[in-house]
């Protein structure tokens, strides 16, 4: 009996020893505190990682818009965030609704692309009340606390119109393609009116333009009609297009009609636009623009400055550059290579801060 009790006691001690060893090993197995410390260090390095950003667009059309969106996404992702793109297909009521939806979804920040004060102001004010920062591009907004980017529209118009005047020796008949109702277009129109006053021997023989879901195609059809109305060489000397979608449509109509004595001067630049300008058979020979990817990147930088609590200006003017065919190589290039040939293109450091650069590297 005593022997049995000793044996039982030995087994009990053995089992308790195993249990104590097992319990003692758990803190080493679950080295969670060290992992959490690392995560905490990363959060301190980039406290704005994981932000949800909404991009509210009036219209998403053509390669310019596509490259602009690429710039937005690239910069947000570098800072550890995500972007939801909400285009309105030109419908301002839908744009306003998309803005309200983003606010209700409690996004961390809102980017706005174009739009009017009537459609956006109430929603933007509601976003600010809920502590959601807003940065707009080419939107007609004057709400305290909102930073608005623009492309230097007057300068872009001046650059292209002055080159047009120089090329035709200050005399000839031109077609203007322009549309009202967009803040950047209104600024370009002011420069156009100054151009008309400066060059009285340059006559506007036709003017048209509409922003549609098929702007380039619709412009092409309208330009074809104008060419039929003015069928003779010299009837039209040049075309000034205030948007690259207009320039694309006009250039295609002119080229297909064999009227390449008519030159096209545009505004904006995308990879597709650049290919057309480089084509020696294409009538589109020059454009003034800001890199659309840079626009997206810069807009995001100012939004993250707001998220960081930094003071930001109410208006940011982006510096445009003039691009003409004679600056470009014969081989096809993309806009990512354009800086090799055109000074000032791409790679803008505007809106960068030291802390933003550091946050990108984490």
TrEMBL record:
<comment type="similarity">
    <text>Belongs to the bacterial solute-binding protein 2 family.</text>
</comment>
<dbReference type="Pfam" id="PF13407">
    <property type="entry name" value="Peripla_BP_4"/>
</dbReference>
<dbReference type="GO" id="GO:0030288">
    <property type="term" value="C:outer membrane-bounded periplasmic space"/>
</dbReference>
<feature type="domain" description="Periplasmic binding protein">
    <location>
        <begin position="53"/>
        <end position="310"/>
    </location>
</feature>
<dbReference type="InterPro" id="IPR025997">
    <property type="entry name" value="SBP_2_dom"/>
</dbReference>
<dbReference type="InterPro" id="IPR028082">
    <property type="entry name" value="Peripla_BP_I"/>
</dbReference>
<dbReference type="GO" id="GO:0030246">
    <property type="term" value="F:carbohydrate binding"/>
</dbReference>
<dbReference type="InterPro" id="IPR050555">
    <property type="entry name" value="Bact_Solute-Bind_Prot2"/>
</dbReference>
<protein>
    <submittedName>
        <fullName>Substrate-binding domain-containing protein</fullName>
    </submittedName>
</protein>
């Amino acid at each position: 009996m005593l022997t049995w009790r000793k044996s039982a006691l030995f087994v009990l001690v053995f089992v308790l020893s195993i249990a104590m060893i097992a319990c003692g090993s758990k803190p080493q197995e679950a080295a969670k505190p060290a992992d959490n410390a690392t995560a905490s260090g990363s959060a301190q390095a980039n406290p704005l990682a994981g932000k949800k950003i909404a991009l509210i667009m009036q219209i998403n059309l053509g390669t310019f818009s596509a490259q602009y969106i690429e710039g937005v996404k690239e910069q947000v992702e570098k800072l550890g965030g995500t972007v939801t793109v909400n285009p309105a297909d030109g419908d301002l009521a839908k744009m306003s609704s998309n803005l309200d939806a983003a606010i209700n979804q409690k996004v961390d920040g809102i980017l706005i692309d174009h739009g009017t004060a009537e459609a956006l102001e109430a929603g933007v004010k509601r976003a600010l009340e809920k502590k959601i920062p807003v940065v707009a591009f080419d939107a007609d907004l004057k709400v305290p606390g909102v930073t608005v980017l623009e492309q230097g529209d007057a300068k872009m118009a001046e650059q292209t119109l002055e080159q047009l005047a120089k090329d035709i020796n200050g005399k000839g008949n031109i077609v203007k393609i322009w549309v009202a109702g967009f803040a950047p277009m209104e600024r370009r129109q002011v420069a156009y009116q100054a151009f008309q006053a400066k060059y009285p021997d340059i006559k506007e023989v036709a003017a048209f333009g509409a922003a549609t879901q098929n702007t380039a195609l619709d412009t092409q059809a309208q330009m074809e009609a104008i060419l039929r109305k003015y069928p003779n060489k010299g009837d039209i000397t040049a075309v000034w297009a205030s948007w690259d979608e207009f320039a694309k449509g006009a250039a295609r109509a002119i080229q297909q009609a064999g009227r390449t004595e008519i030159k096209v001067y545009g505004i904006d630049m995308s990879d597709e636009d650049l290919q057309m300008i480089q084509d020696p058979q294409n009538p589109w020979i020059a454009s003034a623009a800001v890199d659309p990817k840079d626009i997206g990147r810069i807009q995001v930088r100012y939004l993250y400055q707001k998220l960081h609590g930094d003071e930001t200006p109410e208006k940011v003017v982006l510096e445009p550059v003039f691009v003409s065919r004679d600056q470009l190589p014969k081989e096809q290039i993309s806009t990512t290579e354009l800086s090799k040939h055109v000074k000032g293109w791409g790679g803008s450091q505007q809106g960068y801060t030291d802390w933003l650069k550091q946050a990108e590297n984490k």
